[in-house]
Amino acid sequence: MNTKELQEYHDRFDVIRSMDSFVSEAVDNKLLDPDDCWQPTDFLPDMEKEDALDEVKKLRERAANIPNTVITSLVGNMITEEALPSYQTYFSLIFNEDKEVTSDKGWARWSRAWTAEENRHGDLLNKYLYLSGRCDMKKVEQTIHRLIYNGFDPDAEKDPYQSIIYTSFQERATKISHVNTGKLADKAGDTVLSRICKQIAGDEARHENAYKSFMTEIFKKDPNGAIAAFEKMMRKQISMPAMLMDDQESKSNIFIDFSAITQKIGVYTTWDYAAIIDHLVKYWKIETLTGLQDGFTKAQDYLCRLSDRYKRIAERMKVPEEINLHWLSNPKFSF
């Protein structure tokens, strides 16, 4: 890092520090009080009741009608959610300057509160899949273990601006994935799973709006640095948070297989990637952004044209006819 880059790095963290009260307000206004939050048990059989086993049987009967491709996609989504420790670790390394876990400062509060809300997602999907009998849960658990073991790298270069752009993009992508999974569950007749996916998607939508508001504030304070970071992040492409998943047994790359499944069944596609770019460019008003210094207008032009480029890629995209399905159990079971 040369002297100029080092100065830019420090300048960006000055902006981040100046947003502490703004972020603290987001904790109070965009996140929920823990006592008001839904919990996984709200959607699952109550094991304290006498009819618990009957309710588990009903859950398994509903889940039995869900296509293997959808179950595989759902497992991949759940594994991604379960790697939350890696995401909080990364976020805290970048934004929690004091390194005090119980700090009352805005960014530290946000990290804890956001993580607490996100934690329910993996818990709920994990319990649902365990009760469904549709998965080899030992293999699922091993994949989760290895994903957390392997770590997480959004390729944001320890840059807080790029990190917030990444999370803005990923929260929207995750929301889309859960919404589309819910639609497929509904189509298969599992209205409970559909409701679960919609509930999780609702959380992701609130988180997305918060991260986008953080970046909006950065664009106001430092338009040149913000658009440079946006361009840099998009030129590298957004890497998926679960890209380091593996199981050490499969001959094929299980993340590539998982991504191919989501593309094939319409859970998350290249069209969605293009649409997210278009949404963020419009949300942050990149086309009409003013106050840019010489040279940054090229970044502006690049970003405004980028979604069309990915739409052309989506038109040519071909998904393999046969894709390896991972984590499935024997579809035959009795109760």
Automatic annotation (TrEMBL):
The keyword Lipid biosynthesis applies. It comes from the Bacteria. Binds 2 iron ions per subunit. Coiled coil: none annotated. InterPro entries: Fatty_acid_desaturase-2 (IPR005067), Ferritin-like_SF (IPR009078), RNR-like (IPR012348). Fe cation 1 binds at E81, E118, H121, E204. Keywords: Fatty acid biosynthesis, Fatty acid metabolism, Iron, Lipid biosynthesis, Lipid metabolism, Metal-binding, Oxidoreductase. Fe cation 2 binds at E118, E171, E204, H207. One of its GO terms (molecular function) is metal ion binding. One of its GO terms (biological process) is fatty acid biosynthetic process. Homodimer. This is Acyl-ACP desaturase. The lineage of its organism: Bacteria, Pseudomonadati, Bacteroidota, Flavobacteriia, Flavobacteriales.
